[in-house]
Amino acid sequence: SNVITASAAISACEKGGEWKVALLLLSIMGQRKVVPSAITFNAVISACGKDGEWEQAANLLGEMKRHEVQLDTITFSAALSACEKAGEWERALVLLSVMMQSVVESNTVTFNAAISACDHSCVWEKALQVLGAMVQCHVELDTVTFSAAIITCEEGAAWQKALELLGVMLQRKLKSNTIACSAAISACEKGGK
To answer: In which band, very low, low, confident or very high, does the pLDDT at 193 lie, cut at 50, 70 and 90?
Structure first.
């Protein structure tokens, strides 16, 4: 069918980082009255996200709603990732909030993207709020979660929180990595400890 063919072409654009071509193909689908699927939109959002085109990704969420295409976990993860790459932490937190209020199930990847978005802007307090929301929502915290949060604390010179998170990470018997340990050490250096 036309949707499958167009979706395959858009997926190829996503893998090649060709977000403008992916948007063009999506537009052509509309002109030909071919209704895109969630998979199609997700591929375009992901293509935009790989280049930090968060505004395009956000616009596509609106397009999905207009076409009555169901937003899913992949949709939000791709849009959050776009915000993360562009350092748009406020937009990322808004998207996460919208997701949490919807019927879409949040997961570790979506929360990790929101935490990482906070890292780019040194808003470690917000990252820790996201971490708390993960616990409240019973979403699994993994090594990436703790590493991203520790990096955010490092950027904000919040050395005590960075060390606390590293300790919790080890208590949970999660495998610590060089990134988390280096960020905790750097946080201590930045905090003069």
So the answer is: low
